Amino acid sequence: MNRRQEIIDALLAMIKEGGLNVNFTMSELAEVVDIGKSTIYEYFSTKEDIVQAALSELFDKTLQAIYDAPFDDTLPFEVLFKKELQFMFELNDQKSYIMRYIQVEYEHTFPKFIEPQMIENMHKVRTFYEKRFTQIIQKGIEEAVIPEQLNDKTIFMIQSVVAGSIIRYTSVDIEHHLSLEDTIDAIYDALLRIVKK
Q1: Is 80 exceeded by the pLDDT of residue 40?
Q2: What is the mean pLDDT of residues 135-162?
């Protein structure tokens, strides 16, 4: 591994621990990598350049994991819905510090110097997931599990239950009273109750 990547990896470890807006000094970062502070400046001009490089790598890997996730639309609706939820729970659990930025509500908390391309990528992921869940819901309609005509209120409720459940379950401040499997089953049951109202 080259020195530049070691610096990025050290910062990524700090971000994983402290979140995207982690506060650090160049001296602290140099200490983690076990190099002199001046060595960092051989690879990066500013602190923002290091953060930009680390966040670009982090976002790229996370987004690629989302795009590469298996999706088998031949599965029955219930199985497909639950598999997708499980993937999102697991990804959010591993990378909650990134996943929250996919949500519109958190966009205003992006670090100020994040490139517009990264923000555009977040929008693309949201669009990707809206299409993915539309495909899943369409599968439910085809199987007559979900009514053919969903109004905006029902769609909003489904999105809220799914997104809210993922955020709540993976919050580090909350004790889990249900297993992941039981949580996914409960979300599926709530979905069925919502669409049958």
Answers
A1: yes
A2: 87
pLDDT digits (tens, 9 = 90+) for 70-81: 999 999 999 999
In 3D space, the residue among 159, 137, 135 whose CA is nearest the CA of residue 148 turns out to be 137
pTM of the model: 0.74
Neighbours of 62 (CB within 10 A): 20
Q: Is 34 left (phi over 0), alpha (psi -120 to 50) or beta?
A: left
CA dist 189 and 191 (Å) reads 5
Looking at 3.40.640.10, 1.10.10.60, 3.40.50.300, 3.30.420.40, the CATH number of the domain 1-44 comes to: 1.10.10.60
Query: Rounded to whole angstroms, what are the CA distances from 167 to 36, 71, 79?
Result: 39, 22, 21
